[in-house]
Amino acid sequence: MQRASPSGLASVFFPFVQLFVWPRLSDHSVFDPGLSSNTSGGIMIEDAIAYVDRTIGRSLQDLKRLCRIPSVAAKGEGITEAAELVEKMLSEVGLQTRVYETSGSPVVTGKVDTGTKRTLLFYDHYDVQPAEPLDLWESSPYNPVIRNGRIFGRGTADNKGDLISRIWAMKALKETGHKLPINVKFIVEGEEEISSPHLPEFARANASFLKADGGIWEFGGSGPGGTQEAWLGLKGILYVQLEVQLLSHDAHSANACVLPSAAYTLVHALASLKDQRGRVMIRGFYDGVRPLTPAEVEAATKMDLQERVFKEHYGIEEFLNGMSGMEVKEAYYNKPTCNICGLDSGWQGEGSKTVLPAKASAKVDFRLVEGMDPEDILRKLRLHLDQNGFSAVNIPWHEGYPAAKAPVDHPFVKVVAAANRRAFGHDIDIHITSPGSGPLYLFKDKVPMVSIGCGDFFSRVHSPNESIMLENYQKSIKRIVYLMDEMEHL
Ligand SMILES: [Zn+2]
Description:
Layout: H1 6-10, H2 42-54, H3 56-67, H4 79-92, E1 96-100, E2 107-112, E3 119-125, E4 145-147, E5 150-152, H5 156-175, E6 183-189, H6 199-205, E7 214-217, E8 221-222, E9 228-231, E10 233-245, E11 251-252, H7 262-273, H8 294-302, H9 307-314, H10 326-334, E12 339-345, E13 355-356, E14 359-368, H11 374-387, E15 394-401, E16 404-405, H12 411-424, E17 429-431, E18 434-437, E19 449-451, E20 467-469, H13 470-487
Parallel strand pairs: 3-6, 3-7, 7-19, 9-17, 10-18
Antiparallel strand pairs: 1-2, 2-6, 4-5, 5-20, 8-9, 10-14, 10-15, 10-16, 11-13, 12-14
Helix pairs in contact: 2-5, 2-13, 3-5, 5-13, 12-13
The chain binds zinc ion (ZN).
Zinc ion is lined by residues 1-2, 5, 129, 158, 193, 461-462.
């Protein structure tokens, strides 16, 4: 996951000791023999489930093998090697593979067409975040080890563990002689951690490949007390660099009596973007924002966002404007943001330096909800700056993409919930959307995507000592087996 990683944001909700609930393996629905040729009832799928248990060591070997490749997109390392291994693993479980070269890292795809009614799509990535700072790792980031019921290594949670668990679900069905009850596709890219710059290129050229009846996105895991969570969407983003230069070079600060200040111009411009209650003052900023649908309100009402824990985690007494209850949920799921990510000007070192800086810059991100277009917001931002006397503030660089989410009442969401119940033995918590961002918009209107995975609160995604619980990993494989079983009933 990238940027304000969804699990990073969500992780503040998961402080409790995990409470494990073993799945009741007899608690499964019965196959419809008319839809699947090689299954005669619910019992049959259990041999695939038993296979998962029996071969867990081998599947972990596969995970270790992939994690040993330091496929850091930001450094361009290990990319070819990882893409080749993923292709090999996909083809070994019966998928017809193809590697799409892009202007950046290749996109590995796999598909199996069984001629059945339904198609399931997986979106994953084989790249990882840099492992630095290396001295904070208790074991080597690229030599995964198991301790205390967890496997540690860069990529175990984000997202190589999910990818391998999905591949092993395919393997379990194949090796136990099951004919796949659905068609399956995989899209595994190699630049997710650097904002997927070339995925749009792939998506445009292969629009039909993105179509499916349901899709599983790349991240997810368990929340408070071990409850699994599903995320049905991702917010969009507009990220801009704001820059002001008013002098040819830094001046002695005594000259502030006659010279203009870039730093003040920038902070005045930034202050004009938002009022003191946090409402964005850019004209037309909220134009596209739609209220939550009744079904979304119902889902939000059911969710417990653990306000107390959230506040404790950040050491605050109150949320912004004293929000609570449904207001917090509305903000979390359906409010766009305007946030200063970084500010830079003048002297930041020890002691004093009396200087009037020639330049000032800021990095600002806007999290966007459905109905907002990043290019439109960029235009409105430019207009706002010009109309408020800040034409000197330049926007030399920007990037972004829109939000997307699956309808909360889509039947595929119920299918995922049913599969989760069979694997984990409890009801999955449904988040309308994550407050984080990702390239989900490319799949909008092509497939309802649900994000589930084998991570958890302690996974330390993007940080040293990244890990997943072996138990979650094993059950996540089973959840995908059950999902494939449930999907033919979609
Ligand atoms: Zn990530």
